[in-house]
Specification:
mainly alpha; dUTP diphosphatase; UCP030140; about 170 residues; dUTPase/dCTP_pyrophosphatase; globular
C-alpha cells in the first residue's frame, strides 16, 4: 500500500477540478458533506443494516462506493495537510485495537463520526491516522483487501479525470 501515491494522485485531480471550476481552494465543509454522503451510498450498497430486508447481500457497486469514500478521505487529508506519517495501523498494533468494532454498522458510524467532529470542532481529535485505519478496517470487514481498494480507487480516479475533461 502506498498512501503517499494515493494522496498525490488525488491532489492532481483536485488541482484539475479547481482549475476547471475556477475555484481558489477546496471547500472543506463541502468535502465533509461529500464524504458523509458517500459513506451513506457505500452503506446502502452494503445493505447489512437493513433489518427489514430478507436479502441483505451487498450489491455489485460496493467497491466503487468504497473508492468514492476513499477519494473524499484523501481530499480532506490533503486539505488538512495530514501527510505524515502516513500509516494505517497494522493488525495487532495496540493503536488499531481501539478502532475495531464488533460489527460493520458500528465501524461505519465510527468513520462517519470523525467527519461530523471535524465539521463541529474543526479538527479530528483522534488524528487522521485513525481515520485511515478505521476506513481500512471497514473495508476489511466488508471483505476487500487493500490492493482491491487501491485498484478501485485508481480506476475511479481515471473516470473522474475523464469526467472533468468532458465537462461532467
Amino acid at each position: 500500500m502506498n498512501l503517499q501515491k494515493l494522496f498525490e494522485t488525488q491532489a492532481e485531480l483536485d488541482a484539475l477540478i479547481l482549475t476547471k471550476q475556477n475555484l481558489e481552494e477546496v471547500n472543506l465543509k463541502n468535502m465533509i458533506l461529500a464524504v458523509i454522503t458517500e459513506i451513506g451510498e457505500m452503506s446502502n450498497e452494503w445493505g447489512g443494516f437493513k433489518d427489514w430486508k430478507v436479502n441483505k447481500q451487498p450489491k455489485e457497486g460496493l467497491l466503487d462506493e468504497i473508492a468514492d469514500v476513499l477519494s473524499f478521505i484523501l481530499v480532506i487529508g490533503n486539505q488538512l495537510h495530514h501527510r505524515g506519517p502516513l500509516i494505517i495501523y497494522p493488525e495487532g498494533d495496540s493503536e488499531r485495537n481501539g478502532l475495531v468494532y464488533d460489527d460493520i454498522t458500528s465501524q461505519i458510524l465510527s468513520l462517519t463520526s470523525y467527519f461530523i467532529r471535524l465539521w463541529e470542532y474543526d479538527e479530528i481529535d483522534e488524528g487522521y491516522r485513525d481515520v485511515l485505519t478505521t476506513f481500512a478496517i471497514l473495508t476489511e470487514k466488508l471483505g476487500f483487501t487493500w490492493d482491491e481498494v487501491e485498484q478501485a480507487y485508481f480506476a475511479k480516479n481515471r473516470i473522474n479525470h475523464e469526467r472533468q475533461e468532458s465537462g461532467y
